[in-house]
Amino acid sequence: MTRRLRPHRAWGLALVVSFLAACRTSPPAPPPPPPTPVGPEAVAGFDDRSNGLVSDSVHAADRTVFDDVEEIGDGLGPIYNAQSCRECHQNPTSGGASQVTELRVGRLGPDGRFRNPDVAVGRGADTIRGRTLVNDRAICPNAAVPDSEVQERVPDEDTISTRRASLNLLGDGLVEAVADATLLQIARDQRRVTNGRIHGQALFVPIVESPGMTGVGRFGWKDQHASVLSFAGDAYLNEMGITNVLFPDEVTNVCNTAAEPNDKPGPDGVSDIDRFARFMRATKAPARDSILAATAAAKWGSTLFDSIGCVTCHVRSLMTAAAGTVINGGRDTVNGPLAGRVFHPFGDFLLHDVGTGDGIAIAVPEHYGRRYGRYTWREFSMDSVLGARNKVRTAPLWGVRFRPRLMHDGNSVTLRDAIERHRREAADVTERFRDLTPAEQAAIISFLKSL
Questions:
Q1: Which end of the chain is more exposed for a tag (fewer CB within 10 A), N or C?
Q2: How many Cα atoms sit within 13 Å of 60 on the Cβ side?
């Protein structure tokens, strides 16, 4: 039998509920959206054609190398995650994102500082140090070395672990061409307009191809690279085991039978990592779904996206540096279709603590090479690196409609859950989203589905 509240008890309960609702602190008003840069638009699309930086035929040839499947004779391994760049970057076309994830681990030392794992391989014949990445695959035992093995396994003491989803590479030439000063200014503006509640970190990192030089990181979940060439050389070694001019040392020599470096320049003097970098620079930016973007729901959601403050970190529009601007420690110059172009990544490429950080810091030898210690890298700070271990790069939302698994770890499978997971620096924005009506929340989801 259902028990009914007496009138005075029901009245008292309603009074308590009203009092608690009145006492709930509303989040501060959202800051104004960042100013929209004015200039010619960067080209966008998924047609596999060049953005104009190189000819379509050169771009197609570079894409073929990007798609190539590596074999043991090419230098694959000894440990690796994938046999081609495309394997991890292919949705909806070569260079896009994917649902492939990689495993990273580590631990805290007695002093509370992050420590990279020491992974024993080859039945203890070697210990892999200086990396947080634990590769999923290995090339042996095989016909050449039937009695060896080199599979990595996570040590018992390394209790901090995460998976990280593969990133979109389309449009990265535009991202590379954004001036460091632009990203630094975004970080300053975030602090100013939010009274410090949101404070993106611009991390200065080594530019591997320019010894001694650093730049503001923007590639990778931890912003570990400032140039697409550094990113390409890193991935070629650590994801596929292919040594190259930037990363000439094998992770381990157990089962290794290929001569170093594995990536040698071809008859034209161009190496694979140079082709990867040129391919990324010539890709077009991800395009929006023009049909969904034109709907009333998506347009309404776009306005609400700004009004609750999402745009503070998911910055709609950025502008690349002017033609002739020198980047990457003096190695490259911004030019052609990458110069002075406005593009729409819906991201600030800064590090933030939004409560989903994985606790893993950048492993310096892994990402900058075992020889990195030979140089003095200006503005590079290990304290900044270790201090950012619970931060991740703002996920650029261009192309998010092609990702059924979301956030850096892929653990969110709906856009709503991804929004709800935002805490810490993003707590006020998440609370404003919760305060919207169901129809308003649905409009924001519709807008995101158009990106």
A1: N
A2: 5
